[in-house]
Amino acid sequence: MVQVKSFVFNPFSENTYLIHDATGEAVIIDPGCSDKAELAAVESYVEANSLKPVYVINTHAHIDHVLGIAALKRKYDIPFALHQLDEPLLKAVKTYASNYGFHGFDEPEIDSYLKEGEVFQFGETALEIIFVPGHAPGHVAFVNHAQRFVIGGDVLFRLSIGRTDLPGGNHATLLESIRTKIFTLPDDYTVYAGHMEPTTVGFEKKNNPFFR
């Protein structure tokens, strides 16, 4: 049984996810922890549940999703993976982080690259990697078919979609990613988004105003 724990962090109200299974192994997805208190919230959950974090993986590399990566890598001595096309976005964060009040951004080293079609495995859990650009050029999502959910980052939100007015964004590409990669999943799959509450594939196919 996979457990999905969400935290809401930083001024952007970003959803950080920690998923773990019966083995105690865990992965941290999109850690947006922006201060010591937010980092402590992750660490307290890990300790309280006797978990062993084994990897940090990111859907994409916008500032609100990457603030806690370096600290968590050091804390748990674990690697970090990202799609290669988002590496320039990660490297750009240090040039503008202070504009948002995040001073001294600690840029994490990328240890491996995520690729579409591969399956990221930890413990007894498998996450299929799907490539869903549009919000960011190297945006990916993680699909768990056993328990029918998607960690989708900033692609599809409840009754909305991700922004496309940021560098590397493209509105038509994002809509195509959702139509061909997310909406082809069964309707009952839960979508855990990078902001706001979870939704389902079926609900968004029926109600999302961008697809009427």
Automatic annotation (TrEMBL):
Which cofactors, if any, are listed as required?
A: Zn(2+)
Q: Which CDD domains match?
A: metallo-hydrolase-like_MBL-fold
- Domain of life, per lineage: Bacteria
UniProt cross-references to SMART domains, sorted A to Z: Lactamase_B
Q: Does the keyword Metal-binding apply?
A: yes
Which keywords appear in this protein's UniProt record, sorted alphabetically? Hydrolase, Metal-binding, Zinc
List the Gene3D superfamilies hit by this protein, alphabetically.
Ribonuclease Z/Hydroxyacylglutathione hydrolase-like (3.60.15.10)
A molecular function (GO) term:
hydroxyacylglutathione hydrolase activity
Domain (Metallo-beta-lactamase): residue spans on this chain: 13-195
Q: Which EC number(s) does the record attach to this protein?
A: 3.1.2.6
Tell me the protein's name.
Hydroxyacylglutathione hydrolase GloC
Q: What is the lineage of its organism?
A: Bacteria, Pseudomonadati, Bacteroidota, Cytophagia, Cytophagales
